[in-house]
Design brief:
Length: 425
């Protein structure tokens, strides 16, 4: 049921008239958004090093059993993000970005406290369910950037968002490993403290970015993932772009999903070297998003930047399919991060297709697509890796997941080409 709203009669493409704030306050607001995204990413990685020990602590059993429980906790987190990203995005289109961001951070801080004291696997699942819901505020954070950034600058700003997320993935596991030496609960306490500090910072400095004139009525029909997808897909040439993003995001998930297993199998890397390579990858992604994205956009424009990003990914996947030298693989890590240059440009193209009063809805759909890819990609790449590396396999091919990723990237390229023709036509 759609709630009545005083702005329901507004034209769907009403120009945005976000409240003006002084330049210093806008800068602090941008910093708050980046820190929020960084903490979202840190919160995922911060607890990873201690989860095997924590699960065995509350549930018992061996490491294999803990791994199964851990997979369930990861999956429920991703499912909650998939369901609630469009809901939070739509709520922010109705009530504004500020309340959604601040309320979600407050609940997130309490959730980390719950995880810090949880004494059963049931409470850990409750904590991950709540955590997935609150981490869906990523969509609202990106919508805030879309509200406050001119269309021509959005790709670069979206690049900063991805850079913050990449840095969070680097810092999170490193901090989690260090804090884990103090006990399995220490990372959760640290995450609660960081989230609370960011909440206080935002409460003091964050202005609302979405004017009352550009808000729209909340509808459950559009807030559920399928309804939101249908609503957004009807705007401009977004339908093929949404499918393209979904397939391309799954392809990109091959690195976090399979890298640890692939490098241990192919190169015999130990956890220390694997962790170092992941840190290098995260820092390289941040460098691409912060330093390279602006000159790339100036030279090539958004569409060609997307195409070159896909081409870089295909090149990297192809080399890793057959590479057998671990030293060369470490040198390849920064090159593999070059593919990330295309995603901010793609999101900027999509953002330009929707009106100001639907930016939250769009970002919610994009976040839901990312969450759904996190559910599918472990099954796809994990089963592909297992099929070609298990004992007695008739065809040994440890690079099989990267071959699958190449196929997906080629499909994404074809969909992007089709969408580009539709827009130009």
């Amino acid at each position: 049921m759609t709630q009545p709203a005083p702005d329901a009669a507004l034209p769907p493409f009403a120009p945005q008239d976000a409240p003006k704030s002084p330049p210093p306050q806008r800068s602090l607001a941008g910093l708050f958004i980046l820190v929020t995204v960084l903490i979202d990413a840190m919160g995922i990685g911060l607890i990873m090093p201690v989860m095997p020990s924590l699960i065995r602590e509350v549930q018992g059993g061996d490491l294999a059993t803990a791994a199964l429980w851990g997979a369930g906790l990861t999956a429920i987190f991703a499912v909650m993000q998939f369901i609630f990203s469009p809901i939070l995005g739509n709520l922010s289109d109705r009530f504004g970005r500020r309340p959604v961001l601040l309320v979600s951070l407050a609940i997130m801080a309490l959730d980390y406290v719950l995880m810090a004291v949880a004494g059963s696997i049931f409470l850990l699942f409750v904590g991950r369910i709540i955590g997935g819901i609150t981490a869906a505020n990523h969509a609202t954070a990106v919508a805030y950037i879309a509200d406050t950034t001119p269309e021509k600058d959005r790709a670069a700003r979206f690049g900063l968002i991805q850079a913050a997320f990449g840095v969070g993935f680097v810092i999170g596991p490193l901090m989690g490993g260090l804090l884990g030496e103090m006990g399995t609960r220490a990372p959760f306490i640290a995450a609660a403290a960081l989230t609370t500090l960011n909440l206080a910072f935002g409460a003091l400095i964050l202005p609302e970015s979405l004017s009352v004139q550009n808000r729209r009525a909340f509808s459950w029909g559009r807030a559920n993932p399928l309804g939101a997808f249908r609503a957004v897909a009807g705007m401009g040439a977004l339908r093929p772009l949404l499918w393209m993003l979904f397939i391309y995001t799954i392809a990109g998930q091959v690195y976090p999903v399979i890298w640890s297993y692939f490098t241990a199998e192919r190169f015999g890397w130990d956890p220390g070297r694997i962790g170092l390579s992941l840190a290098v990858f995260g820092m390289s992604m941040a460098f691409v998003q912060i330093v390279l994205i602006r000159p790339a956009l100036r030279m090539w424009g958004e569409a060609r930047t997307v195409r070159y990003g896909i081409a870089a990914d295909i090149f990297g996947f192809g080399i890793l399919c057959f590479l057998t030298n671990g030293t060369l693989a470490m040198y390849m890590v920064p090159l593999a991060a070059l593919g990330s240059i295309g995603m901010p440009a793609l999101k900027s193209i999509m953002s330009a297709q929707v009106p100001a009063n639907a930016q939250g809805e769009l970002q919610g759909v994009l976040a839901a697509i990312g969450a759904l890819s996190m559910v599918i990609s472990p099954i796809l790449f994990g089963s592909g890796f297992a099929a070609f590396t298990h004992q007695g396999t008739p065809l040994y091919f440890a690079g099989a997941p990267f071959a699958i990723a190449i196929v997906l990237a080629l499909i994404a390229a074809a969909l992007f080409a089709a969408a580009s023709k539709t827009r130009e036509g």
